[in-house]
Amino acid sequence: MGQETVQETAFTIVQGGSVTTPRGFRAGGLHCGLKKTTRHDLGAIVCEVPAAAAGVYTTNVFQAAPIKVTRESIAAGGVLRAMLVNSGNANACTGQQGEADAYEMRAVFAEAIGVPAEQVAVASTGVIGELLKMDRVRGGAVELPAKLGESYEAADDFCQAILTTDLVKKEACVAVTIDGRTVHIAGASKGSGMIHPNMATMLGFVTTDANIGSEALHGLLRQVTDVTFNMITVDGDTSTNDMLVAMASGLAGHDELTVAHPDWAAFAEGLRYVCEVLAKAIARDGEGATKLVEVQVRGAVSDDAAQAIAKTVIGSSLVKSAVFGADANWGRIIAAVGRAGQPVNPDTVDIRLGDIVTLKQSAPVAFDEDEALAYLKGDTVVIHVDLNMDNGSAKAWGCDLTYDYVRINAAYRT
């Protein structure tokens, strides 16, 4: 698949780019037998040099074994050479054996590619509470290095290997200019259900050839996560396995990026765009979803207040159900705004569905029901809420709540 570029303000969108587009990265995937189908279920991203690394993780108290291992790997020296990921089994709530299996995953793959074990991170996604079939993981980890490549097809194999109930893969790539050199930032993620992150997404992986230290990368990753992955919800459930890991090879060859670098803002904007694309793709691919829902809040007393309100509205089961039914029930929206626990003037709220005004200064506005019905039947619905109090603003993304969501999750293990 060829690459095409689309110019934006601070960066260029690379159509057809992937996690292997940044210099120094290879990827791949295969079926090792963790899934009942023949779909890929083991994948890896490998860097030819030690890459500066950073990660953010779920705040769920029951954290899966791979999170402990990955935290330790990144903390050991702030660098990674590889990321090994399996789907079909979360390796969560599996006790000491689960931890031992996660460490073994790391060790086996490290040996297979000839790097220190502490430079390998691991991630898992799938069913909670079942032990990994380690004979299959071992076999796959040994076979996987031969599948690694720099091609789009190799990156696609990785993307396919990390999916569970996802219907589509999620990826994005941009190019930015740092010190006159072209730097790529790319990402891949998975997520469809159990999505209400308080750190990142179900699983997300970012690669870049930027020259940036682990500490600076970690600080920026947390900031970007707060306005992208932390602003999506599908079902209100924060997973035991949520993880976002970034790796920077430094092979672009520019001066080291810090907040004082004149091109820092361009890099930050590129990273934010990649993460926002991935986050919105997860929301759009929510289990059973038929449409992407975006909530835009402005006029709040602060950005934090706007974020809380936006995420309350996007997470409301009543709002999500109304969107699914194409019902312009703005009362559910205003009710969610009022219970978000943030300062709101009950006399100054405006609400629009796309361009259709339904509430002005907290008073109902007559609107064309047929026009609203047609708009809500589209595949993207944007809900605008203006509190008319101050300058705080935020966006959140989610999806509608459908009959299929219940069907999918009623039989998840079978």
UniProtKB/TrEMBL annotation:
Question: Would you say which domain of life the source belongs to?
Answer: Bacteria
Q: Name one GO molecular function term.
A: L-glutamate N-acetyltransferase activity, acting on acetyl-L-ornithine as donor
Binding site residues for substrate: 164, 190, 201, 287, 409, 414
Specify the enzyme's EC class, one word.
Answer: transferase
Q: Which residues form the active site?
A: 201 (nucleophile)
- For this protein, the Enzyme Commission number is 2.3.1.35, 2.3.1.1
Pfam families the record matches: ArgJ
Under the heading NCBIfam families, the entry gives: ArgJ, PRK05388.1
The family note in this entry says: Belongs to the ArgJ family.
- Official protein name in the record: Arginine biosynthesis bifunctional protein ArgJ
